[in-house]
Structure formats: C-alpha cells, structure tokens
Predict the structure.
Amino acid sequence: MIEKYSFYFTEVQKETPRQLMLLSIISQGFVQPFSMEDNLLVLLTALTSGSGVGFNRAMLLLKDGDTLRGEMWLGPRSAQEARNVWEVLSTPGIGYVEVIEYNRSLISKSQDTLSRRIRNLRYPLSGGVLLIPALSARDKDILLVKDAGNEPLVDPKFLEIIGVDDFVCIPLLARNEVFGEIILDNAFTKAPIAPLDIKLAVICGLIAGNYVYSASLHKKLVEAEKMAALGEMAVFVTHQLRNPLVTIGGFTEQLLQPDLDEEKKNRNLRIIRDETKRLEDIVYQIAHFLKVTLKEPVAFDVRPVLESVIESPEIKTKVQSRGVRLNVRIAKCPPQVLCDPTYVGEVFRNVLENAIEATPAEGKISVLAYAKNEKIFVLSVKDSGGGITEADKAKLFTPFFTTKEKGMGLGLPFVKRVMDACGGKIEVESRGGKGARFRLLFQCQERRASP
C-alpha cells in the first residue's frame, strides 16, 4: 500500500501542534514560485495565524541603506475586524492558500490598512542614541518589551503608532548582517508573549533574513551580468564597426584627391557603398535583437509556419548554392504549439540557416517536426557538418559569441530568448566530425476540432 502526503497542510486544523503548522506554512515559500515579497508575507502569515505562532499582528521593517523603513504590517486594524477574521479562519475547509491570498489582498488595498500606516516610517541605524525599534536591529538583539509606556528606550513616536504595551522585536539576520526587523504583538487578545512564542518567531526571522539576503545576492548577480554583457557588447560593436569605418574613411580621403582618375573614383564609391551596407546590417541585427518584444504565448498551427520557411526563396537559394540535400518530415496534423507566432518562423529560419552553413557540399540536413507526447512538440534540425566542440557548446547562447568569420553571434541567443519566453527548451547534441542536432521543444496543446 502506498500513501501520498502533501508538502504542507491544505486546511487550518486547530488540533495540529502549532510547531508543525508553522513549518507547514513556511514550506509554501519553498514549494510555490513566490516572489521575495510573497515569501515574506507567508512568514508574516505564519506568525499571525491562530494555528501557527498566533500573534495578532506582525510588522516588517527592511533595511534601506543606513535606516529601517516600514514595508508591511499584517493583522486586523481593530478588535472587531480581528473577531471577523478569526471567525472566517475557523470555517471548515479554509486552507493556508486562501489565508495567504486574503492577506495579500489585505496589504495591497488602497484604504487605511496597517501597511499604509507604516510605509513612511524611517528609523536611522547610526548616530546619537538609538531607541527601539532601531536599537534591536543595530545591536542584533531580540528584545521583548513590556510596559512600553514606562520604558525610556522605546521611541515615543513608535509607541504611538504600535499602540500596545507589550511587543517583541526580532532582527532579520543572515551572515551576521541585519537586513530588517519583525515586530510582533497581541494587540487584541492581550495574551502574554511566552518564551516558546519568541523561539518560534525567531525561526521565521532567520528564514526571512535569508530570503532578503538571497534576493540581494541575486540582484547583485543580475546587475553584474548586465554590466559584463554591456562590456562584451561594447567591445564587440567597436570591433565590428571599426573596420568598415576605417575603410570608408580611407577611400573617402582618396576621393578628395584632385588627381584621382575616374576608374578609381568609381571603385572607391563601390567600396564605400558596400561598407555602408555592412554597417547598416550590423546596426539592424543589434537593434533587432535588443528591441524584440515577445507577446504572451498563444496556441497556433505551426505546420504552415515551418513550410513557409522551407519554401522561402532565401532558404532555397542557400540550399542550392551550398549543394546540400534537405530532408524534411513534418507531422501532417501536429498539435497546436504555444508560443509567439511572430517569432517561431524566425527561430526555425535561424537554426536552419546555421545548419546549411555548417554542412559541406553533398551533405544532408534532416528536419523533423513531431509531437513527442501530448504536451511537447519537437522541431529537430540535424546537419552533417564538423560538429561543435564542448568548449563552444557552453558558449552557444552567449550574445556576440560566434565561430563564423562574419557572424554577429546574436542568432542563437535570440532563439533561446524566444524559447525561454514561451516555456520551451533547446537541446544540442554534437560530436566532433559527426554534425550537430538542435532540438526545439515547444509546449503544445491538442488541436481543437473545427466547429
């Protein structure tokens, strides 16, 4: 016998130990494709859920430079609203997915939510004497505040906002660095904050700190990759433009010589025209790659698109001039492909032209288009050229990388960009001297019957 279990509980169950329920809620941040903001919201939900830790309200402050700024504050605005929420959460069949969705809508409302009250909060983390809440973040201390009205270390303005006597401050730590702070209270139940409550809240604080830390690392990595790509692009464009510009400049200078005969003038003008055309091609290809706008994937019949590429004058001319054989087999009634129809033809043309250029005279190119299963449609292009080395294979989809003498290195990155946008994949198989096979795997759906 085999029993299946979910990664997290789908329903709120009061009889389940709250430590287990807390971990169940937190697990959603790992199972579902949430953004960092949603993951933090999941943690605040875990902290304020009656079956989790059970605090009434959870305030999130994030570090912004050398200050703490208000980000979101989750919980009811009044005792009556708290009773209404708790009544809804006790309804049989209500699960944490519904709770999180409710909380997401709560903090995004334009009305007077708790989050709107703290969006303009700013607390310096340096200079002078720091008060709570900044003191907790700066010193990396978990602080349980009781009888806050008589505690001189609590900022009076903050006390006016939070409006409770007892609350706990949990710094968000990762790699011994502070990334923010969570402040918890029981404004409506007036329940005392117990040591176990704090221990469970600390778990959420550590996870939240690592969420923010990971997100900041990812942002820095993306920025570094962008700068590296811009640097490579600048070097490549400079290299591509220099030769035609130098050629145009040199032959223009000769045209200015009064004793240049007519034959040389015409020769120079033809060279200048050809180099200008080359510059136009370079600028067009770069602009086309950078400006491409991919729409939401739609289902469409791919067979006519593929056939139009194969029958196009450009492809026929290249096949004839190279002296290669083209063997094409397309399923007669393929499923509908999910992608942007505008670019699928360009993607196929790009891969096919690469295969034609890689294949020697008398060589063969095989094109297969078929449904792998009910969810995947495969477009395969195999050439009989010299193949791709392992070193080059790792760089195939890097912008401006090319093994062609006059190539721009933007074709395959464009193909990957389109395939990524429509949820597809590219597979490359190649061995030295055995040619290369490119497989484009599209998501698809069954063909709809004609009305």
